[in-house]
Amino acid sequence: MSGSVTQTTNLFPHLVAEERHRDHQAEEALFLTFNVDLGYFESRLLGLLRATGARVTVVADAGVWAPDTRAVKFAGRSYQLGLVDGRTAFHPKLMVLVGPKRAIAAVGSGNLTMGGWQYNHELLTVFTGDLSGMPTAFGDIRNAVSELAASGLLDVVTQRGLADTSRHLDTLLAAAPPVDTGHRVHASWVSPLITHIPAEPVAELNLFAAFHDPGANAVKNVMTRLQPSRVRVAVQPGWTHVDAIALSTVLSTYSASTGADIALLEDPSSPGSQEARYRHGKLIEWVTSDGQRQAFTGSPNLTTVALLKRAGDGGNYELAVTAPVEQTLFPGGQVIDPAIVPAPVADETDASLESDSQNVQVLSALSKNRQLTVQLNRLAPTRVAVELSSRDDDPDVWHQLGIVPEGARTTTFDTLVPAGSRVRAATAERGPTAPMFVTDELRVRVRSIPEKKASKTYNATSKDLFGDDTELLNLLLDDLTAYAEASRSTRLPAAAADGAESRAAESLDRDTDPIEPWLWLQEDAVRRYGPSLASWLLALPQLAGNETIAVPWADIITAEQAVGLDDDEQADAVDEDLTEDEVEATTSDHVDHSDDVERLKLARRRWA
């Protein structure tokens, strides 16, 4: 690997290559996206990601969140879903897969949808690194993720996913030599993106994007900054969201004042052509006076809120890459009369629009300690009803769970709600809004189970231990002895002297959680001994296991044997949520051994 960078349109081969290492080294998988299709994500990517060993976090824009609830099976159970309501669009496109040995990161233009990953013309820059070398762009990505984690925009579980991703990147960057590839990654929540475009005269400027300002203000500012002698802008008539007359006027005005050669071109893959394909990529490409070609790619469209403003100050949340390129990324095309470029019919939400300031929706729903904590995207302007559709219920069946009082944003309900259930807000004025999936933090923050670390008694229960065969007891003793030896060489979570929260020591061979060491302990026990014995050893109710019980309403929409999905269902899927009586029945496990033969009783006493 040794610190490579690839300009590509397909990320799948990189993820498959990581999974084929079979060492389950990946700790965190993070996705930042505008739109998200969770049905596509679960059927095509989730199994592959979990097979690498990673916990998975997906973060999307709350303003365009509109899930197909019948296609979603694992949200809140096998991966964390977070929504961002930043008033302007949350529009970055980022994937990070990181562990102590290797990392992959991709910054591009495609959303986490079938269109963004398979169909559209997108631009994607993929960075790979390992202990022999890490591209310096990983440092930019680490900083961007860390800043976002600390922004206050995220719920606590999503924030933890970003913070841990940043932490693992930091550890790998500290261990590996830097490799300078000339690439830099820029986040609009750190500074306005246009400040990373050089303010110097260039010989040539090429532009395309799916969205333009109505008055072409962003194009005007880019030209003012780069002062190009030649300008080409490509559009797809009917698909590109652009006021072609306004754009042509801006280009002509610039040409009249500078003498620049300007042209508006029809993209060769425009509607009606043999190669018709929606170009969702974004490109600002220039050639310096000495012939060096540079590209500015990523998520920002040619709009004011994407390029000219900082996120938090009226700008979108965007990620971009500046890099040298050997060959042009510009599609070219034939000159087109702007008068014949139609105003497009919107087929994608314009990421330049601000969020509806009156919309009230559920941003997160966390199930913990037999309570459900619901967080809205803003203070409730009036009484807001919280409605619940349990995971076992048909997604069209809802009942009122309770009320968020006027002026409140977070409310806790004393009720046990299964992870993966659906929660939504409803007001008298607007009715119900888009649902959010209930998260069980322990489930989504548990990694896949590497087979090499699993106990020989992994599938055993406490009843099995005290059967007629004492071999299982001996195997468990071997496992406990090995665990004790490993613990002596690694500092375990210990209570702080001042009585504050326990802290988990960092380790290269063990993932630790510096916030809640009990999560680390339960995860480690499940990984080694299996859900049943881990529950018994820790004297806890049934922990996340390895069985999946299908809900009665679920549609089978895709083949369940996609790459990595078998590993996913074995290592990631969890037991059906149990009622209180069922928990009691499965954990009490009272068996009368008084009539067992004396030989067995003696062997058990010796084992103990």
Describe this structure in words.
- With 608 residues, this protein is of the alpha+beta class.
- It has three domains: 4-187, Endonuclease Chain A (Endonuclease, Chain A), CATH 3.30.870.10; 193-340, Endonuclease, Chain A; 450-545 and 578-607, no CATH class.
- The chain is built from 15 helices and 26 strands.
- The strands form five sheets. It has an eight-stranded mixed sheet with strand order 10-16-15-14-11-12-13-17. It has a seven-stranded mixed sheet with strand order 1-7-6-5-2-3-4, sandwiched between helices. Strands 20, 21, 23, 24 and 25 form a five-stranded antiparallel sheet that branches.
- The two termini are 49 Å apart.
- Residues 490-515 and 557-589 have low confidence and may be disordered.
Give the gist of this structure.
The chain is of the alpha+beta class and 608 residues long. The chain contains 15 helices and 26 strands. The chain has three domains: 184 residues, Endonuclease, Chain A (2-Layer Sandwich); 148 residues, Endonuclease, Chain A, CATH 3.30.870; 126 residues, no CATH class.
Helix content: 25-40%
Strand content: 15-25%
Taking all Cα atoms into account, the compactness measure Rg is 27 Å
Q: Order of strands across the widest beta sheet?
A: 10-16-15-14-11-12-13-17
Q: Could you name the CATH homologous superfamily of the largest domain?
A: Endonuclease Chain A
The total tally of domains equals: 3
